Amino acid sequence: MPKARVRVLLADDHPLMRAGIAQTLSKEKDIDLVGEAADAQDARRQALALRPDVLLLDVSMPGPRAAETVVYLKKHCPETRVVALTAYDDDVYVTALVDAGVYGYVLKDEPPEAVLRAVRTVAEGESWFSSSIMERLNRRKTSAA
pTM of the prediction? Predict the structure, then answer.
């Protein structure tokens, strides 16, 4: 059964991008935006303090690398599920973040509804990846077999 309200922490170093995503999240009755961070270190601090259900984490921010932040949070804040938010869909980023344990991967060129679907899906314990990322992951599995 889905939670009544999903608590989200948003981490993105671009104020305009952060404001747009925050506005999108804030309009939803089932989502509480509990904090915003402009760098990875602040995202870690706020995640530990606020214990959000979902952290929307920009992949390219000042501070520790996103994959390191995912691993850190899995250890110190395991109830928080991380969704990578990025403009990058190349194999290096995707592989590092999937291996680190992200629950989702949303490309910034997706419509706002994709972020909402990702947040809700991940909050329910499922994974959500942009379709181009899923194709990439499926190709990776097929070539590894």
Answer: 0.90
